[in-house]
């Protein structure tokens, strides 16, 4: 199978999340970081948005990164001219392809949409650009109409097609079937763009890849419109561990980039967020901690170091004697069976009062008080 390409869109769809507005420094920092960890392609913004966005795009282009840089455009020649003025050599041209989208935006005039696509695509190709085409709302489009649209774009010179599950309504099985049909009928590669409205963005992205898509849009932390996009860290780690696909991305820095984007976006993550959440390698429950102390693989799908995190063992309401003894031994405290049990009872009580696990300091003072 050909190498799958990550085309990260944190700086475009990620920033479209309501309430997110990266400044120039943050945009540059995120682009540099994505490049540094080996992301091969980055969608860096929408030049049509105006001066500030154009400055950010041009500044990122000027960095001379290894990654291919892509600008998002409507099927409007002025949008593409703005992208070219920023120095971009790759453009993405999006058109709506479902009846509901074409109806709302172009009064159902699909021929007009095709004409806009043909005109803007020809213009971009005449400027010597790499042109990727996006089918907005591909998942709800009539399948024959979608295929006819892409076959036309392919004939007119497009280099890649982005299959968009714009409102996140697919499941992995349907995604697989739809993408398989396209991959079988097209000569240009297919890219996946999946949204998380039903919590299936990553699963659907993987299903598309399984069906033969060769490129995938991601965003760091899954940031993006509404419930977000397929998360970079989830797609990379799932491909690595579940599909045995090494994308040559430095996964040891995934936590760092997650924190960078969390700070820049102003949105923290729930502790249980897959891959990068604070609790993904934290163990409190007695049975789990006992297992992990013998062999971490009992309750961890991969080693925390792989994403740049450390394992945490904490005591709380659900802890057991093995974990407690282990933590106390690290502080030179050895208790007999009864003493351990009475500290454990006190830990449970205090944890319930505080509604959280205990810090090491709280545990040690509890030991001092129960002796
Ligand atoms: C699914 C997605 O995520 S698509 C990407 C969405 N991202 C964004 O919208 C963020 C950036 N957008 C913007 O800054 C602005 O919307 C701009 C600069 C692109 C356009 O702004 P405005 O001129 O004020 O128009 P507005 O946003 O209100 O309406 C969209 C216009 O684009 C048209 N349009 C929408 N999609 C497309 C398309 N794919 N190709 C061509 N025209 C399109 C609409 O028909 C409408 O046209 P009209 O002004 O002639 O009626
Ligand atoms: O690139 C496109 O064509 C549209 C991308 C998008 O953000 C979406 O459909 O959700």
Provide a descriptive summary of the structure in words:
By secondary structure, this protein is of the alpha/beta class. The chain has 2 domains: 261 residues, TIM Barrel, CATH 3.20.20.70; 89 residues, no CATH class. The strands form 2 sheets. Strands 1-2-3-4-5-6-7-8 form an 8-stranded parallel β-barrel, surrounded by 9 helices. It has a two-stranded parallel sheet with strand order 9-10. Helix 2 runs parallel beside helix 3, helix 8 runs parallel beside helix 9 and helix 14 crosses helix 15. 43% of the residues are buried. The chain binds acetyl coenzyme *A and 2-oxoglutaric acid (AKG). The site of acetyl coenzyme *A has 16 residues, from strand 4.
**Biggest sheet features:** 8 strands, parallel, barrel
Spans of 5+ residues with little confidence (pLDDT < 50)? none
Secondary structure tally, helices: 15
Question: What is the oligomeric state here?
Answer: single chain
What is the topology, as strand order, of the major beta sheet? 1-2-3-4-5-6-7-8
Number of strands: 10
Shape: elongated
Hetero groups in this structure are: acetyl coenzyme *A, 2-oxoglutaric acid
CATH topology of the largest domain: TIM Barrel
What's the CATH class label of the largest domain?
Answer: Alpha Beta
Question: CATH H level of the largest domain: which superfamily?
Answer: Aldolase class I
Secondary-structure content class: alpha/beta
Succession of helices and strands: EHHEHEHEHHEHEHEHEHHEHEHHH
């Amino acid at each position: 199978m050909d190498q799958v390409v990550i085309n990260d869109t944190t700086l475009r769809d990620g920033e479209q999340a309501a309430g997110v507005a990266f400044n120039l420094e943050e945009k540059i920092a995120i682009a540099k970081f994505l490049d540094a960890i080996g992301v091969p392609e980055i969608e860096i913004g929408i030049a049509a948005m105006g001066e500030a966005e154009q400055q950010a795009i041009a500044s990122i282009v000027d960095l001379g990164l290894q990654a291919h840089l892509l600008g998002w455009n409507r099927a409007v020649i002025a949008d593409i001219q703005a992208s070219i003025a920023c120095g971009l050599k790759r453009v993405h041209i999006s058109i709506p392809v479902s009846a509901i989208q074409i109806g709302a935006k172009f009064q159902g005039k699909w021929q007009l949409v095709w004409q806009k696509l043909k005109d803007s695509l020809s213009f971009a190709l005449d400027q010597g650009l790499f042109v990727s085409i996006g089918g907005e709302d591909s998942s709800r489009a009539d399948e024959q109409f979608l295929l006819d649209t892409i076959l036309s774009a392919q004939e007119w010179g497009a280099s890649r097609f982005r299959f968009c599950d714009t409102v996140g309504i697919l499941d992995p099985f349907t995604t697989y079937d739809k993408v398989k049909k396209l991959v079988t009928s097209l000569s240009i590669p297919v890219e996946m763009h999946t949204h998380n409205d039903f919590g299936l963005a990553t699963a659907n992205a993987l299903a598309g890849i399984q069906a033969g898509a060769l490129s995938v849009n991601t965003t760091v932390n899954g940031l993006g419109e509404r419930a977000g996009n397929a998360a970079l860290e989830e797609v990379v780690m799932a491909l690595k561990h579940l599909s045995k696909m090494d994308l040559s991305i430095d996964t040891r820095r995934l936590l760092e980039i997650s924190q960078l984007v969390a700070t820049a976006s102003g949105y923290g993550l729930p502790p249980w967020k897959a891959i990068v959440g604070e609790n993904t390698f934290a163990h409190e429950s007695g049975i789990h901690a006992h297992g992990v102390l013998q062999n971490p693989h009992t309750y961890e799908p991969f080693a925390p170091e792989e994403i740049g995190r450390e394992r945490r063992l904490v005591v709380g309401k659900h802890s057991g004697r093995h974990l407690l003894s282990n933590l106390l031994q690290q502080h030179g405290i050895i208790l007999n069976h009864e003493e351990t049990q009475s500290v454990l009872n006190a830990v449970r009580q205090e944890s319930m009062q505080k509604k959280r696990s205990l810090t090491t300091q709280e545990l040690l003072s509890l030991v001092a008080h129960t002796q």
